[in-house]
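ingest -> fold -> write
write: protein_1
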Amino acid sequence: MRKKILLMGKSGSGKTSMRAIIFANYTSKDTRRLGATIEVNQAYFKFLGNLILNLWDCGGQDQFMENYFSSQRDNIFKNVEVLIYVFDVESFEIERDIFYYQRSLESLSSHSPNAKIFVLTFQKRKADILKYSKPLEIRCFQTSIWDETLYRAWSSIVQELVMNSSLLEKSLNEFSNVIEADEILLFEKTTFLIVSQSLRKQHSDLKRFEKISNIIKQFKINCNRFDTTFQSIEIKNDNFTIIIDTFTPNTYIMVIVSDPKITPALTIHNIKYAQKHFEKLESQT
């Protein structure tokens, strides 16, 4: 199944850098060598087996933006599943930014009224964006290519695109209860974005999932540079055991267990036992 994602915003706002970090294994420093996008750059990314993300990275120069709302309007805004609009943190042309943003919303409402809308910006502008978005519903994230906030935003976006996300979460909750895990997370294998999670015990660090995505993704990239393959990680101390392992053909699983009576070997056995069930669910995405 193919789903169209529009990535829009002013030139220099970081759209292409985000795409390169998430989908092309760039580091934040690597993005400095990327040039500006000319017109529209289309790319296809396989995600969780049958799901194909058709990402339209739209150049943000004024002449291109004007074309999107006139001669290219039907082509750009038709059959869109998700619009991701990125605001430039360093922009001094706030009124012009809002003008283009509202025109994007108008065009999207006409051609893809059911599309989900995500805005990536910084905290000071959030209230204004929510005001100028009415009556449409949007989700707003404060993001930076230099920390884990990028993974939080993009994980939320892709979770909206997974067809059986509620069934996947239900199965993960049942699995977590059976093996008495504190937490379980499913990561997409290439991007290491979180596609589902189960939480049985509260934790004080609300950003821990995104931090893990960022850390493991960078570790995986470094492994590739040295011609080695990342397979699994096991961490055990007096307070908990963490296991990160390959799960289905397109996911990694992370299981956190604090009960000292549950051995890592038992947890690994349970992970292997559950694989076939989740492989079947994955094939239905």
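write: protein_2
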Amino acid sequence: MENKRGVIGLIQAVVFDWDGTVMDYGAQAPVIALKQAFAYFGIQVPLANIRLDQGLNGLAHTKKLLRNSQIGFEWLSNYPDDSLNGAVEKVYQQYQRAIGPALKEAAHFKPGVKELVDYLNFQKIPYIATTKFPQSWLAQVLPLAAQQGFHPKANVTFEPGDTASSEINQIVDHLAGLSVTRPQNVIRIGDMPRDMLTGQTIQALSVGVVEGGQLIGLSEGEFDLLTIAEKNELRNQAVEKLEAAGADEVINQINELINLIVAINDVDTRHAAYQTVKD
């Protein structure tokens, strides 16, 4: 089977995004950590305000929130001898203290991940994972992920001073280490537009996943409380953003990737064998 990005033959590898795709439904850990960081200084920032720029790195997110007239005014009212630049440094330092516990608390598989990982293992399709967090933060989550059965062949982290090119180079190097011969036979799956752009850059099949992702940005409990119409509206908005960023395919739940791989690989007999083993 050949699809619109030139996949011919078998899928050779999968490149996962970590937060909001594999673990941490709605990518809540950074949101919670940032809220706690401001609360430490007596400033209560509504979750809705923080979620407006969900996906920014912690420092940029802190700066943007403090540029908000109400939040900035509250800070200067509480700390008249401090500058907003000083506020950014203090809040971000507190955020760095809060993010580790928040990441560990949120380190649970999203629905459908275990089924997908079991399938990849059965089909002997290797996978790596990427994150916008530094290695020191990811290291706190890795043992918890391993306990749940997630064992990437490599992890791409984002260190201070890294650029988008750094991430791309790491991914390409790791895929070469997996003996990938055609980047078009790699799937890049993530929940954000930047993940789709990464996939395009490495010439992979870019697959966006909607539910539990950052574009919706709600916890599983919050999402479950919505009406069907509200859920569908948020899903449609996320789909539009992922497609606008160049997604080749968009799926709602991450385990729907299994059907896509089956269609590409045209391995119905192997899939039937997997179903037999699983059942």
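write: annotation protein_2
The chain is about 50% helix and 10% strand.
The chain has a mean pLDDT of 90.
pipeline exit 0
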